[in-house]
Amino acid sequence: MDYIFETEHLKIRKFKIEDAQSLYENHMEDEVKKWIPNESYADIIEAKDAIDFYINCVNNKHLPYVLAVELKETGDLVGDTGVNEVEGNNEEVEIGYTICKKYSGKGYATEVLKAMTEYIIEIFRINVLYGRVMNGNKSSVRVLEKNGYKFVDKEFGAEDDPYGNGMLIYKKEF
Description:
This protein is α+β, with helices and mostly antiparallel strands. 33% of the residues lie in helices and 32% in strands. The chain has 5 helices and 8 strands. It has helices at 20-28, 30-35, 44-59, 108-124, 138-146; strands at 3-6, 10-13, 65-71, 77-86, 89-99, 128-134, 150-155, 167-173. An 8-stranded mixed sheet has the order 1-2-3-4-5-6-8-7, with helices on both faces. The longest helix is centred in the middle third of the chain and has 17 residues, at 108-124. The protein starts with a strand and ends with a strand.
C-alpha cells in the first residue's frame, strides 16, 4: 500500500474499495452522525461509490480531497480526513477529520489534523484553511485550537447544521 504521509501513530493513504465496510461503519456511529450528520452513507454501495469518487479526486489532485486514516499498529481504518472548498466560495478551503469512537480520546484527531494541514498547504499551495465545527462539539474545537486554528465567526443557517445551533468557524493562515 502506498502511503501518502505518516504521523507517529497513523498512516494516511488513498482509500481502496476494500475500505467500504469500515468507512460505512465508522460513519454510522452515533457520535459521528451527531456532529457531521451529512457524512453518513445509506449502505455499503453508497460507501463504495464515495470511495471511487475520493480515489478519482486524489488521483487528479482536485477537491474534495479525502484520505483514509489507518492505525500503524493494527492497519485498522480509524477515520478519514480531507479538504473541500467552502460552500459557495472556491477560493477558500475547509479541512475536516473523523476518528471513530473506538479510537477517539487518544490524540489521533489532533495528530492527523496537524499532518493534514501541513500536507494540504504544500500540495494545494493555499494560504488559509478553515475548520467548521458544529456548536457544542467541544472535542473538535480543542483539536482545532491545539493546531493553531483561531475562532473567527459563528455561522447560522448552514445546510450541515440540522440543529440550528450554529457552526463555529476557525481559521489558520500561513
